[in-house]
Amino acid sequence: MVRVDRSFTGTNRRAVQEHLELITDAVWAHIIVLFNFGDWLGDTTIEQHIESEGEALQWLVEKCGNRYHVLNNRSNSGFQVTELMRKIEELMSFNSSSYCKIEGGILQEKRREEQKRAGERLTRRQKQRETARSLLGELYCPSELRIMLLSGRNTGRSSAGNTILGREHFKVGCHATDCVEGQGKVRGETVTVLDPPGWLSVGPGSLMSPSASGVTVVLVVVNVSSSFSHTVWRTAEKHLEALGEKVWNITMVLFPLGTGWGT
Predict the structure, then answer these.
(1) CA 235 – CA 151 distance, rounded (Å)
(2) DSSP calls for 62-88
(3) Burial of residue 45, with CB atoms counted within 10 A of its CB: 0-12 exposed, 13-18 middle, 19 or more buried
(4) pTM for this predicted structure
(5) Which of 6, 53, 125, 245 could share a disulfide with 57, CB 3.0–4.6 Å?
(6) DSSP per position, 228-256
(7) Beta-strand pair 145-150/2-3
């Protein structure tokens, strides 16, 4: 099932492939892609939607032998269900009514591999935390914390800056062309927040480097209500790498939770 009102990203594609191939490699011959929330398409045909969504969704449809059906959730018409049943019967006939058998041994082996990798990731994270804690006493603590917020538009960047400062300083919903700076007190310490223009407003080389601006922390603001697509990832990577290879050492990802954010 694929929602047509949401982007089908490369991450979605990999998740589908990994989960389905856990069952058996032959599973693809038994699959129909069901597009849910078809009313969202309006006058756009499903073929136009598949074409416009890009490589990830096109790969899925082709992998399933171009078998798909659209379900309008707001329609009580029985025709769309009847048509779906017809397509299912055609698929069964094509497969000579054979079953899609789950290869239990392979499935268990894959699960063990996933559990092993998850354990290794947990061990690495624990070691990283222990190393970070051991170095805390050796780190230089600046007299002023300078934070740079980076993101595209409509991620909640300015709202996050206001939350950090504890007051309304940055204009939410205003697409500024210059870097706006705000200052406040957090736990008795001076904190300066820099809110530069969004990534769509400036090129990768237009931002001042952290060392030149005295920035101690870079916060990449990611909107949790929308997909972090391959395009967003590449844009973020270009802008951060333009600030110097050491920028990754002072960068954190900030997920603001809320609605009606603006910039």
Answers:
(1) 9
(2) HHTTT-EEE--TT---HHHHHHHHHHH
(3) exposed
(4) 0.44
(5) 53
(6) --HHHHHHHHHHHHTT-GGGGGGEEEE--
(7) unpaired
